[in-house]
Amino acid sequence: MKKGFAALSLILIAMLALAGCGKKAYTAQPVNEDVDVCVICNMQVKDDAYATQIVTKEGKSLKFDDIGCMNEWKKQNGTDDIGMDFVRDYNDKAWIEFAKATYVYDPSIRTPMAYGIISFKDKASAEAFIKEQGVGRLLSAADLNNHTWEQSKGMMDMGL
């Protein structure tokens, strides 16, 4: 009986150890407009379609009011400590993994820090936005690596 219990105990310990070896799941945290400020520009992060977020490998949530601010943080800090980065779907504000989203850019698109980039959970939604608005260029997450990341000075001057 003791041998059976010992063998069962070893199997359970091995199963628990293997379960802990899986890929860590990172989840976006809700935006709290009362306390959340952008890590880069220190502006209030609104619970809106422009909010973005990085969850570090240690589980710390960094929130940004504009995708351009998130890009600036990556430029300053690198990407080695990022567990997952998230953007919001422009239409329903659902959190999406940065790499899986489709983006639309146009300098005339109003965003909190005037970077003119919005995100969508799928390509069809992004294309529909471009068709409806008559402006915008479709971008992938990979395309954003080569993006110039300039702010629209005209929008910044207007306080938008």
Automatic annotation (TrEMBL):
InterPro entries: N2O_reductase_NosL
Alphabetical UniProt keywords: Signal
Signal peptide coordinates: 1-19
Protein name from the UniProt record: NosL family protein
